[in-house]
Amino acid sequence: MGAAIAITGIGVISAIGLNAEQTLQSLRQKRSGIAAPKYLSTSHVELPVGEVPLSDEELNRLLLLPEDEEISRTTLLGAVAARQAYGSAGLTPFDVRDERMAFISGTTVAGMDLTERHFHEMLADGVAASKILSHDCESNTLEIARLSGLEGCHPATVSTACSSALNAIIMGVKMLLAGEAERVVAGGSEALSRFHLNGFNSLMILDKEQCRPFDTTRQGLNLGEGAAYVVLERVEHAQKRGVKPLAYIGGYGNRCDAYHQTATSPTGEGAYLAMTDALACADTSPLEIDYINAHGTGTPDNDRSESTAMRRVFGDRLPPVSSTKSFTGHTTSASGSIELVITLLAMRHGFVPASLGFGSADADCVTPSSGEDRAVIHKALCNSFGFGGNDSSLLITDEPVALAEPDHSVPFHIAAMHRVTTVDKLAELRQYVSPMESRRMSTLLKAALLTSMKALEKAEITRPDAIIIATRYGMLEQGEKILQHLDQNGEEGLSPTLFMQSTHNTIAGTLAIRLGCHGYNLTVSSLQEAQREARRLLEEGRATTVLIGHHDFYPPIFRVIMERARGGSLPELTSTAVVVTSKVAEKSPNNSYFCASLFLGWPSKAGPP
Q1: Backbone angles phi, psi at 538, to 5 degrees
Q2: pTM for the whole structure
Q3: What is the mean pLDDT of residues 263-277?
Q4: Positions marked catalytic
């Protein structure tokens, strides 16, 4: 049995347009949106960025909100794009207040713009401390839903750095195939912040000129901002509504490079596996692909590695390739959905977007397209890769494709579990890592590694097939130190090591590297979503063992601010790892199940949902 998934609506806002029509015009006219920062308050005016050409006040006005209401820019951008998406699908605000509908959003920065703006005040002012309530990714998703009219939908949040939005869309496809929703709005949103502008600058991968992906003179990327969402539904549901799909999902892949937290492997293994998985979903030949929207950041390492991966997949029959980041800038967590919308526009309007700025070929890289005004695109791949080696690829087509539905009869067993709730227990980590390696790790990373290794050891599993991590606040310890640095020292001298380990999916990436796991790799905000995604993987046959983790640590300053804002106490540390499998448990299943039922909130008598 199979089901076809349609894209019936799109919404997008970026440096090259406030909607899909403006975006299309910019692409056709080869007009870049990269320029000196105007709205971001930064001393680094020498670093060009792709800013949405509206102030926060103007975005408020666009959403019919009071101009002086202070809302995270990530939220505002997301609300604009989400409204556009369901509106273009022929849905009204009344239609989307539906519990059988899901809203899945990808972000990493989330409300960081408000946090960094008020961080100094938060340390002493209880009123300012309330701004922290918009800091985390899950709160950002809920705020976008509220402002866009999607608050009645089931919410979910994905945070896998620069692949977040594409992974959100992939999750939406999987939910529809599993029959868990009738309709999904999925994508991502990200606003520029001093936090990640200075973080990327510390890695020395920002170009002071317009980026030139795949060019031999490329010096790095330009950061951007924006948001995009697509409406997904089964074809039969679209037909019932009398809606003509814009495109169809032809396949998807998510894999982990399992090589380095920020660098990509020389062989492009994660990217190669993600693309081949996407093609294999519907038994599509590489020869059938008419266009690839590459991740193409403009950094020497990424472009070389992605080129190697594409050559491994396509050989000497490479279709036209381009990177549109020279138009929008690298919109980080939103890039996958923004570039998917661009790919869809190219398919529907018959053109290949240009790789702006390209002028000199690099033997180690593919030669990107300078643009084609008349092109026939039936099938296209969109690549999106993130820190932690999180690599995703999505195939869209102009004809419906039957994708395999999961087998709900596949069993779901708890193989083992381990939990740590106090920092003193982390001394046990010496069983798995050297003292020198341990000193370089944050508290949360130590806890996650310890509980994961213990759980795998109990389950007698060396390497899981997939890793899914739930964390609401991510690597707060690193975030706190970066914010302190910006507050006390300004925008110079930031440690690259801090930024390298600051993304939410640092845990999932580190575990994949240590375990050599190239399988499915995801980081979400909710423990319940992690459990649901693990179940989907087992039922799809993409995994037989999945490592699930739930990890959060509250460092001193953030803990005080959050307790002041929330009016209650927070646990210092929460770190639990569970190994689930589709194989029949052989050892102490009742005890393992009892522990997991407490951990996952499953009813102890009825069994897992």
Answers
A1: -65, -45
A2: 0.95
A3: 92
A4: 162, 295, 330
